[in-house]
Each structure stands twice: as structure tokens, then as C-alpha cells.
From TrEMBL:
Pfam families: YacG (PF03884). Belongs to the DNA gyrase inhibitor YacG family. HAMAP family: DNA_gyrase_inhibitor_YacG (MF_00649). This is DNA gyrase inhibitor YacG. GO terms for molecular function: DNA topoisomerase type II (double strand cut, ATP-hydrolyzing) inhibitor activity; zinc ion binding. Zn(2+) binds at residues 17, 20, 32, 36. Binds 1 zinc ion. The keyword Zinc applies.
Length: 65
């Protein structure tokens, strides 16, 4: 039994690029290009994406003496 290209199930569903909403490319998934991938990485490294956590008072600091 041979599968024609029209009957082959894709490995993952097609999604839009989270940066520019163009269709994603397999080699840069989930992004469409190396540029969008780099933009997202820069946002993570610069602290633009922040996961909120409990606030810590300055005098507590988390250090034990």
C-alpha cells in the first residue's frame, strides 16, 4: 500500500507565526523565519517576557545568615 502525498498526515498542525502571523515554516517552527525566531529570543533575553511570582520584600532577599 503506497500513500499519495495528499493522504499523508502532517507531523504537526499548521500554525501561524507568533510574531507576524504568517504561516510557520518547518525549519523554524513555530516561527516563519530566522528573523522572527531571533526577535522572540531577544524578547526573552531582554526580560520583556516576565512570569509573575510572589513579591519579595527588599530586607528578606532570600538569604539566610
Amino acid at each position: 500500500m503506497t500513500n499519495s502525498p495528499s493522504t499523508v498526515t502532517p507531523l504537526r498542525p499548521k500554525r501561524r507565526c507568533p510574531e507576524c502571523s504568517r504561516p510557520s515554516a518547518r525549519e523554524h517552527f513555530p516561527f516563519c523565519s530566522e528573523r522572527c525566531k531571533a526577535v522572540d529570543l531577544n524578547r526573552w533575553l531582554s526580560g520583556s517576557y516576565v512570569i509573575p511570582g510572589p513579591s519579595v520584600a527588599p530586607d528578606e532577599g532570600g538569604e539566610e545568615r
